Amino acid sequence: MTASETSVPLVIPQLIVGLGNPEAKYHETRHNIGFAAVDMLARSWQISLTENRRFQGLFGEGRGPKGNKIYLLKPLTYMNRSGQAIRAVTDWYKLPPQSVLTIYDDMDLPVGRLRMRLSGSAGGHNGIKSTIAHLSTQDFPRLRVGIGKPGDGKAETDTISHVLGKFTPDEKPVVSEVMYLVRDAIELSLKEGCEKAMSLYNSRSVVGTKP
């Protein structure tokens, strides 16, 4: 058996989805960090995002850093129905689930950290739960961006207000730096596969500086 026969195909994203909620009141909240990431990618790659009714979201297509065709999506279905918009795009372009990279917030990671994985459960995240349901598989890459947890002993209502709240003044510079890490990790995944990006960026972190 040759080396090429035993090698595992690279996981190269084609559709990059940022999860969030569409109303203005959710703009720049922790829960919408996926939207912020896709906005940054659109700016970096000069891809225009416009509302697409067929895809139930803000959608754009263009070329990635390697010149390959890339699709960007921000579902406008609200978080718990994100999978509807994602499935609409994958059906239209006949994309396999393994080519869908989903970016979303994670309370289990501190602000300043990110984590890329090739598959996994929803972990309680409604946007990923919907995505798994509509793609009928857990096997799609995802990039989790840390938003931190509320203080110890906080009630569930405090957790909700934390997720739907905005980053503190101390956290905002860290989040800005993390967005560059997100972009770099995704660009590497487009060139050399998600596994390579995981090996280099899952251990990286941005640490805030105190005045």
Chain-wise SSE layout:
Elements: H1 3-6, E1 15-18, H2 33-45, E2 50-52, E3 57-63, E4 69-75, H3 82-93, E5 100-106, E6 114-117, H4 126-135, E7 142-146, H5 156-163, H6 171-192, H7 194-201
Parallel strand pairs: 1-4, 1-5, 5-7
Antiparallel strand pairs: 2-3, 3-4, 6-7
Structural overview:
36% of the residues lie in helices and 18% in strands. It has seven helices and seven strands. It has helices at residues 3-6, 33-45, 82-93, 126-135, 156-163, 171-192, 194-201; strands at residues 15-18, 50-52, 57-63, 69-75, 100-106, 114-117, 142-146. Strands 2-3-4-1-5-7-6 form a seven-stranded mixed β-sheet, with helices on both faces. The longest helix is centred in the last third of the chain and has 22 residues, at 171-192. The protein is globular, with a radius of gyration of 17 Å.
Distance between the termini: 59 Å
**How many alpha or pi helices?**
7
Helix content: 25-40%
Class per helix and strand makeup: alpha/beta
What string, H for helix and E for strand, traces the elements in order?
Answer: HEHEEEHEEHEHHH
| Parts with pLDDT < 50 across at least 5 consecutive residues | 1-5
Number of β-strand runs? 7
Which radius of gyration do the C-alpha atoms yield?
17 Å
How can the largest sheet be summarized? 7 strands, mixed
Summarize model confidence as the mean pLDDT.
Answer: 92
Shape: globular
Strand content of the residues, in percent? 15-25%
Strand order in space, largest sheet: 2-3-4-1-5-7-6
